[in-house]
Amino acid sequence: MSDWDIAIKRGIEHNIPRVYKVLKEHPYLEDLARKVREGKIEVLSKLDYYIDMTMKSVESIGGKAYFAENTEDVREIVGKIVGTNKKVVLGKSMVAYESGIRKYLQSKGNEVWETDLGELLIQLADEPPSHIIAPAVHMTKERIRDLIKEKLGVDPGDTHEDIVKVARDFLRQKFLTADIGITGANAVAADSGSIVLVENEGNIRMTTVVPPIHIAITGVEKILPNLEYAMNEALVQAAYAGLYPPTYVNITSGPSSTGDVEQKRVSPAHGPKEFHLILVDNGRKKANEDPVLREALLCIRCGRCHFHCPVYRAIDGKMGDPPYSGPMGAMWSGIVYQDYKPALLCSHAGNCREVCPMKINIPKVLEYLKSKYFESIRKQ
Amino acid sequence: MIEEGQLDFIRRLVFKYLMEDYMPFPVNKTSCYEWANGLNIKKGGETILYTGCSYQLASIGQKFDDFLPKIYKIKGIESLSTFGKKFLKIRDERAIKILKNISLLLKKANVDFGYLYEDEPYSGTILLEMGMLEEFKEYGKKLIDLFNSHGVKNIITVDPHTHYTLYRLKELLSFDVEIKNYLEILSGKDLHSTYKEEYVFHDSCLYSRFLGMRDVIREVIKNAGITIKEDDMITGKETSMCCGGPLAPINKEISEKIAKNRAESLKTVSKKVLLACPFCYVNLSPYVESYDIAEVISNE
Ligand code: SF4
Fold first, then answer.
1. Which of A38, A53, A168, B278 would disulfide-bridge B58, Cβ 3.0–4.6 Å?
2. What is the SS3 string spanning A117-185?
3. Whole-prediction pTM value?
């Protein structure tokens, strides 16, 4: 068995029964998922209106909002805020990866650290992620031990706990001295301008609170009509990822503030003094105009479809263009990179459609992308 | 992964064969209908048994999956089709037996049906599965015309791919026929099998998740007196895995790996595997003892 086969087998054995257990124990989650789908469809049906509302809401709570048409725009905006020779901590963000933010900031002379453990391993190995919520799912614990030994100069020992401890000690220093924290957003509430982030490690909490500047980068499809929907999205995402209840759900609404002196709301307080939200298009708006592709924009990145996909399980994490992998990755490679080839790998087993909390008809989207692929070669 | 040039070559070639001869590969058409010889099935009629040549072509199809990408740079290769169509006769004894069994089971169930013999076309499955929707629609029109010209009103299918293909033709084009699968027709009928061993049933993805036939098939198996073993993590609707078949023309290696993975997990439930699809059989049988449902629910 290859490393991938061993690692994915262990991952599946841990994850799949756990998701079923979570859904059985908390039956209200299925209702929440239905509600989130409705909220997302509402936003997608008036996307420009909600983008506008979100940006106004962010400004009204003292944050700065930007609309980036493509990844070049994202890099430019982030580059201007960060500058050079800074220390940057990153909370896992697929859109930041899509925009090449880590490497871009490093090229500008900044020290940049991924703080999600899986993503840190990816950074240390200089490899693409293999799963959207478990980016290092392809690495066995034996490989991780060797990697840490080689890159950080410490032998963490051979238990999962030992490995986590070494990463914790290493990252704590980075959090405390960082100038800027960059995260994604699981959901954005259009009515309040809040972003919601769900996590278990505590790294996102620190990334969003300890450094004096917080930048959130996310796709426009992450907007939900209001904070109630956005909160629900985080719960649903965590549940279908098999990590429920999530250890932390973070809501960030603009820079830190206090009302303790005569109830006047004053900013900043102990947390960041600046909050920036970058809403990224990069193919999403165009996809939204297409009735088949619009479905893909409903994805909440729970990663459940990956583990139920026979192809993803067999293919060494390489179904889709990073960071987008698995069935959702084959859809998203089409949307943001106009790469339709990953869709050809769909064997239309249909398991992904059965388990998707957003009820996305993934095989249908992939069939459509396959036909777009053939259309493109027919034209040559 | 197959290269762009190879894919385009397969696309053009398969489409050309289909449009010329209603067959995806250049093989002699007798291969498709010789199973019916001697069974006294009437020709045509409003209700027909339609094999879509799936069982008959499954194993040769696998060879073409290997062969076509390798020859795409040879000049003039496309014209070899005339030769193949004349001389390449394939005879798959197992497929013949399965199709005979199916027709006998239907007769026992008092179903009145005909067959198109040499006029029976291939369904176009390969175009649909590879995602060539434009070619599929174009071939689909030809197919519909052919069925209409024979006055066909009801079609009985025998495999999941053909069934799903017709279902998609109805969805994408206007095709006014009733489609029923033989297993749906046999459900509720008192069948009798002499096979008394325990099996694990490998669901076809299409039957189970796209055509809603998961329970119907289990009922047919039970009515035949066959015991099947289940395991939630291996044979559940959401957890059972593909045999890898549909991926073979795109990536042979991954297709085989999926088949091996599937066979390994099935073996943990039972060493004998029952299935209901020619492509599942072709893919899984090198790795596990496999039987088509039509081989064990009939006493022939
Ligand atoms: S497509 Fe569905 S199952 Fe897959 S990651 Fe997105 S929401 Fe989750």
1. B278
2. HHHHHHHHHCCCCCCCCCCCCCCCHHHHHHHHHHHHCCCCCCCHHHHHHHHHHHHHHHHHHCCEEEECC
3. 0.94
Best residue in B16, B242, B277, B280 for a mutation probing chain A (most A CBs within 10 Å): B242
- Taking only Cα atoms into account, the Rg of chain A, rounded to an integer number of angstroms, comes to 20
CATH 3.40.50 in chain B is located at 190-296
Locate B143 and state its tokens: 């197919």
CA nearest A81: which of A213, A217, A261, A264? A213
DSSP letter assigned to residue A199: E
This complex has an ipTM of 0.94
Residues of chain B contacting residue A370, judged by C-beta atoms under 8 Å apart: 130-133
A213-219 and A180-183 strand pairing: parallel
CA distance B127 to A25: 43
- The reply to whether residue A308 touches residue B239, judged by beta carbons under 8 angstroms, is yes
Question: B205 is written with which tokens?
Answer: 């993805």
Whether ligand 1 lies within 6 angstroms of the CB of A305 is answered as yes
Residues B245 and B78: their CA atoms lie apart, in Å, by 25
Put simply, the answer to whether B131 touches A343 (Cβ < 8 Å) is yes
What are the φ and ψ backbone dihedral angles of B211, each rounded to 5 degrees?
A: -115, 5
CATH dotted code for A285-374? 1.10.1060.10
User: Which ranges of A259-346 would DSSP assign to H, the alpha helix?
Assistant: 284-288, 291-294, 304-307, 310-314, 326-337
Phi and psi torsions of B289, nearest 5°: -70, 110
Between 2.60.120, 1.10.10, 3.40.50, 2.60.40, what CATH number should domain B190-296 receive?
Answer: 3.40.50
d(CA A98, CA A325): 12
d(CA A151, CA B132): 47
Nearest CA in chain B to A18: B233
Task: List A204's β-bridge partners, or say none.
Answer: none
Strand order across the beta sheet in which B114-115 lies: B42-43, B114-115, B47-50, B154-157, B178-181
The pLDDT of residue B53 is above 60: yes
Closest by Cα among A169, A138, A139 to A152: A169
Q: What is the model's pLDDT at position B299?
A: 56
Architecture of domain A43-282: 3-Layer(aba) Sandwich (3.40)
Nearest residue of A to residue B235 by CA position?
A351
Helix (H) or strand (E) holding A229: helix A227-240
Query: Domain residues of chain A, as ranges?
Result: 43-282, 285-374
- Among B277, B85, B90, B256, which residue's Cα sits nearest to residue B181? B277
Cβ within 8 Å, pair A313-B261: yes
* Model confidence at B74: pLDDT above 80: no
Beta A223-224 vs A248-252: how paired, if at all? unpaired
- The predicted-structure confidence for A28-50, as pLDDT tens digits, reads as follows 999 999 999 999 999 999 999 99
Confidence of residue A1 (pLDDT cuts 50, 70, 90): confident
- Alpha-carbon distance of B202 to B215, in angstroms, equals 13
With a 6 Å cutoff on the Cβ, whether A40 touches ligand 1 is no
